[in-house]
Design a protein that fits this description.
About 35% of the residues lie in helices and about 15% in strands. The protein is an alpha/beta fold and about 260 residues long. It contains eight helices and eight strands; from the N terminus they run E-H-H-H-H-E-H-E-E-E-E-H-E-E-H-H. The radius of gyration is 21 Å and the shape is globular.
Length: about 260
Amino acid sequence: MSQYYFVPRTKYRFNPKKPDGFELSRSKIDLFTECPRCFYVDMRLGVKRVPGYPFTLNNAVDELMKREFDAYRAKQEAHPLMAEYGIDAVPFAHKELDNWRHNFTGVRRQHEASGFEVYGAPDDIWQNPAGKLAVVDYKATAKEGKLDLDADWQDGWKRQMEVYQWLLRGHGFDVSDRGYFVYANGDKSLGALDGKLEFNLEILSYDGSEDWIEETLVSAKECLMGDEVPSADDDCDYCTFRDVSNRVIAEAAGEDTPDQELPL
């Protein structure tokens, strides 16, 4: 990784003197809910969290699933998987769909109370015969046993879907609270790879709520307007690593450090 990744950027940083119209992505909203300090350091000070490795296999699955559902979109027919799960809908056809699904354009909505221009890119949208839309997100895994949405780390998936629902409603669409995760689960029961990985497709439904979004956006704005770096979230591994590493480095250099116990 280039050392220049960690040089504070000058672009796409929140300026408290010019706060209105700042673009805030769905992923940055989730970052704020995870840790206000990481959010502030990123959006106000210009230094992102250390990135993980790219999910290239997951991205490939996403792309192939989009192509597969797009084929049925062109015919305005239901995908067989939708019929299998009793979902009376077809992939939604709209002239802006390609823009909505692009990460750096997405569906956009101006939020008056915070002044943010919020955006996010859903994987897919389905429409039932009454014209109501359902947000759809593709996920890939390789898990034995029953698939579910019960893990704490999947809360971010749920917030992701709820933001997409909120964004589309801002454009006047009738959007169902019920969205769908199309789960591609890699089959590990086969005797050999044989040059290909096979997936079983399942659909998990989720009933979202946007009740948290308004106050979260206002709180995120207040966070960025402040001149003090917020406290770290107790469960933030990134902040714990920064704090502990800074402390032990200072101790090794013989510098005074705050009287604070290191986390175990």
